[in-house]
Design brief:
401 residues; 7 strands; disordered N terminus; two-stranded antiparallel sheet; single chain; Alpha-Beta Plaits
């Protein structure tokens, strides 16, 4: 019953790592789902800004009067994307998402209507169906479907209604022949990037869920003060051992611990318990286990040890505790403990060995404390239908001081 093992990071993902630095960085001080959406929106705005600037330069290179309108449109869209970047960095995720999609959709619609669908610019709307699910939060999900519907409508308009050469200036066929595969390739790359990010986030979410589950299990099975196992994993281990293995159990109780708490306060008492928990761990074999049984009581489960060997081990444990005072603020505490030991039997009734170890502990207390006492040999195993009585259950044992 040791400490929880550290879990490794998700499997290596060299491509997704590069993308995740862009889409998962903290933007505008936002965290959680809103932070992830803001980071994705920020990355989208940067990409859209770069493309808008690129198309501004592209149309300006023709030096044609009928393409000046396209230079203006793309330059205006680039400024709109830049404004969105500023807005999302201010922490306004929702407004930035609206700016990103409205400006991008408007840009595709105006440019495609002007130069025609042969340019392939409207293909970017296909990727928009995935983008809308990544730049709106769950609370904003109605806007996902709104913009998805708008993207489909604009795509159909561009593909079915807009002429091949558009309503404005006609670009040379050779230019359109180059633009279409470029835009198609960019769209495909964009969609692959979005898929990679979604896949990475799924892996990261599963990894976080596994870590949280492991942490919850660790906290449920561990005493927070001493770092030792609590009752539940101890009982589970005893149940397994009582079905198939030879073992011994010891219950130790710190002598006069209530007086220590009353005299020095619970802060000193907690420090003593924490220090002894660490000592117990270092004194045991790797096959043995120790847990906090309640209050100032501890339980030891020792596999493949006869009762005589278990008594000898607990004598060494008792001496290691008694011979080394526990340092505290400005003083130290001399601690002794009484121990009861019992050997288990393979009868699938672990509560019986706990009861006998507790009875032996009571004898150690009665005989003057600071000693180890062994329980007599167990009585014959009861019928399989026998159940523990109230007096035999661990929670009803007599208290010790």
């Amino acid at each position: 019953m040791g400490a929880l093992d550290d879990r490794g990071a998700p499997p290596g993902r060299p491509v997704s790592d590069v993308l995740s630095r862009m889409v998962d960085r903290r933007i505008g001080g936002l965290t959680g789902e809103t932070g992830r959406v803001a980071a994705t929106t920020h990355a989208f705005l940067i990409l859209a800004f770069v493309l808008a600037v690129g198309y501004t330069i592209f149309f300006a290179a023709f030096a044609a009067a009928d393409l000046e309108r396209m230079v203006t449109v793309n330059l205006g869209c680039a400024l709109g994307f830049a404004a969105g970047i500023v807005v999302v960095r201010m922490g306004r995720q929702f407004l930035a998402s609206l700016i990103a999609l409205i400006v991008a959709t408007t840009q595709v619609l105006l440019v495609t209507r002007f130069i025609g669908w042969e340019s392939g610019l409207h293909l970017f709307l296909i990727a928009g169906g995935q983008v809308v699910f990544m730049i709106f939060t769950q609370r904003q999900r109605s806007f996902r479907w709104l913009f998805a519907t708008v993207a489909v409508a604009v795509f159909l308009y561009c593909q079915l209604i807009v002429p091949e050469a558009g309503y404005g200036a006609a670009l040379p066929p050779s230019t359109l022949a180059v633009m279409f595969p470029i835009n198609a390739t960019l769209t495909l790359g964009f969609m692959y990037a979005l898929a990679a990010v979604s896949h990475y986030r799924g892996i990261a979410a599963r990894h976080d869920a596994d870590e949280n589950a492991a942490r919850a299990e660790y906290l449920a099975n561990t005493d927070p003060l001493t770092g030792l196992a609590n009752r539940r994993p101890v009982i589970e281990r005893l149940d397994r051992m009582s079905a198939s293995a030879n073992y011994s159990v010891a219950i130790a109780d710190l002598d006069h611990f209530k007086a220590l708490n009353d005299t020095y306060g619970h802060a000193c008492g907690d420090r003593v318990l924490s220090a002894l928990g660490e000592r117990f761990r270092t004194q045991l074999r790797v096959t043995d286990a120790v847990g906090r049984w309640g209050g100032e009581e501890f339980i030891f489960v020792m596999s493949d040890l006869s009762v005589d060997d278990a008594v000898a081990m607990m004598e060494r444990m008792r001496a290691a505790i008694g011979d080394h005072p526990v340092p505290c603020t400005g003083h130290s505490h001399d601690i002794t403990m009484s121990v009861g030991v019992a050997d288990g039997v393979v009868d699938q009734m672990s509560y019986r060995v706990i009861k006998r170890a507790d009875d032996a502990l009571y004898v150690a207390k009665q005989e003057g404390r600071n000693r180890v006492c062994a329980s007599p040999a167990p009585a014959p195993a009861p019928m399989a239908s026998e159940a523990p009585t109230r007096a035999e259950t661990p929670d009803s044992r007599r208290g010790h001081t």
